[in-house]
Amino acid sequence: MMMTFMQTQFSSEKLIGKENLIISLWLGFCILGATILFELRKRVHKIIQCLALTDDARKLFLKYHIITYVIFLGYGFVLAGIKANLAFAILLLILFIITQIGLLWLSADRPQKERWLNSLDAVPALFFVSGFAALIYQVVWQRVLFSTFGTNIESVTVIVSVFMFGLGIGALAGGQLQKYFPTRLLECFVGIEIAIGVFGVFSIPLIHKIGELVPHNSLPALIVTTYALLAFPTMLMGSTLPLLVGYLQKRYITLGAIVGKLYAYNTLGSACASLLTVMLLFTMMGQQSTLIIAAACNAVTAYMVWFVCKKTSVPNNSGTLAETITDEIKIFPNTVSYRMALLLSAMVGYISLSLEILWFRIIGFMTANMPQVFGMLLAVFLGGIAYGSLKAKQWSESGKDAHDFIARSLLWMAVLAYVAVPLTGVISAWIGKPLGELAGYIAVGLLAYCSGGIFPLLCQIGINLPRGKQTGVAVSWIYFLNIIGATLGSLITGFILLDIFTLAQNVIIIWAGVIFLLVLFLRKPSTSYIAVGVASVVLALGLQPMLYGNIVGELQGFSPAIATLKYVYENRHGIITVTEDKRGDIIFGNGAYDGRFNIDPVINSNIITRAYMLAALHPDPQRILEIGLSSGSWARVFTLYQPLHELVSVEINPGYLNMIAHYPDISILHHPKWTHHIDDGRRWLTNNPNERFDAIVMNTTYYWRNNATNLLSREFLELCKRHLNPGGIIYYNTTDARDSIYTAAHVFKYVTTYVNFVAASDAPFDLTYAQKKKNLLAFVDDNGKSVFANPDPKYQALLETLAKEPLKDVRDSILNEKNLWLITDDNMASEYKIDHSFLPPFLR
Fold first, then answer.
1. With the C-alpha atoms ordered 416, 422, 425, 430, is the resulting torsion angle positive or negative?
2. pLDDT tens-digit readout, 563-615
3. Distance between CA 647 and CA 333 in Å, rounded?
4. pTM assigned to the model
5. Closest by CA position to 773, among listed 615, 599, 600, 607
6. DSSP 481-500
7. How many other CB atoms sit within 10 Å of the CB of residue 711?
8. Labelling 271: which of 356, 378, 747, 834 has CA 20 to 30 A away?
């Protein structure tokens, strides 16, 4: 009795303590929320003070704007099952901003509204919306093309490069439009926005349809197909900047100010879109719905620009401008020739995108390739470019020397390019990976800020044309070369240099490129400049072993006190590392745990019993397809199975073969039953429609990693189903996402599970105990003895456990669960919804 009383009292005290903790947390969140809202209100008041509102309009706005804060009571929907996560917070903030703008519009009087609408400043602001839509298209189209043509490095490089090249060609086309239609530039812009929106709405079915008609295993076919799909919309997107430069060339004092403002607004819109697409839109909806949002932005932009075009009394490129600041554009003496400006623009584009690629690899490696990294990194990168462009605009309007600004920007780029990577590694290894990731994002933003102001000022110091002399044409060529440089950065750095040199060596190469560009740009480098430059190079090369010697381990979060990397292999596909461990060395792929080198079912450090369990799922698996090789342990286990005739492995990264070669006991590189292909698994299945297997096995990576949808979606499972022999099974790792089981249950008639694996088939899993045991005993080692015939009693006990494992059909029960996602190519639920969506499936 006394013990029961004490247990009850202890439980009560524990419950009270938990309740007190919950109350304390709620109070803390309430105080934090109130503080944030108070600060937000102060910021709104400051913005209103800066606007040229009448006293009546200001008073009316301040009287009612407090009502808009009711939106934040939306957190009350948490009680209905909505998760109060970052996506939900972003949604409420966007709704708050929209209501603030709406209230501001209602508070303004008619003359104020007319001034807003009739102002030419509305055109650059609308260019923000155009950039917002363009980036959404880029993110979605890349995802659709990856699922269609595969996510191997060839597909990724071609798709990104073709997209960039289309923008460059579009820039030239925009310059020609100014030449032939100088008085209809806004009308051309409107038509382009409408055309982009119409294409966007129908783009996904079009990509899928064309993807079915062309071979996926031919690189030339991939290049031609991708360009044919993206040439039209990307050319239209690229043409918009020269058009607006031509239209607004009489509105600003300097050409640098025009280009800087337009480039900044458009890039800032793209930055916002990049962040919101991966953090909000993909969590709320699928790819097609996201494209409709982008098309709506195009429609709004087209309508508002047309409205401004009709309302303003400004002829497009002739006559007297209603808002012209000066009759003649301010001319600065050229410090570089036009040809030199073209060359410098191309080199800046090359270096800028090369740095983006390197940092995408770095932060992707640190986060194990979380899908949100691409959007967040791109947002920081584009945001930095936008603010750099605005700084260039201010610098240009102030009359300061543009040459000095560019030289300073290049100098800071050189410093940051060299020190940022090792600094990020040190923070990650010694303080923590989250802070290391934050340091990486800050470095990307600062590097982009330095490069963002160079392009507008290159236009200023390289172009010396009076007003009305088709400056848009001249700008289009500088813009074109900038994009061509960026395209070459993607091709050369991403496809070639990362396959030849290590990450550290590529950083040094880019750093040297910035130094070269700085020297090239200096008008008359003095002896002191040269001496300082040489000393800097010698110092940097001397410090490289100390700063970059353990950079991969540090970025992975391993200080020498924690662990050292036994093997490191880097290529253009990614970074593979191995750490030593007594129970089997651990292998990591792009920063994520990828298994261990172990085939002993009793040691079982990598739960290798899951591989042996295949014999209890299928009565006679003679031909097996393995997608993903990793340590090769699973493949080695399958080759031990005597009835097996052939094992086909498809691995996207050839670096795993190099790692496996270090482990002779596991290596299957020369096994007669084994054949392999270096390819994307989904693409290989698509390109080999006649291949049939008794089992398709995937020790799939974590469901939340980038592009994991391609191996977990309903569409992929249906593709696998077409490659199975009668009675064949698909057997893969759910990584503890029940949504994967739920998706399999929508494709196959029978579904069962073992540990964190799901097995699915159109034939029942009904092997008897005797059949299972017989099949398990058919795993025979190189000495001709059954693996489970080991005299150690642990092997006999394990044999009995596996043979008696109840493989119950869970299809009906899993389909009755209401809080699971059906993973599809469109909704990308495994990456963007399972952990991130605030809206559960049953509330959709």
1. negative
2. 689 999 999 999 999 999 999 999 999 999 999 999 999 999 999 999 999 99
3. 70
4. 0.87
5. 615
6. HHHHHHHHIIIIIIIIIHHH
7. 24
8. 834
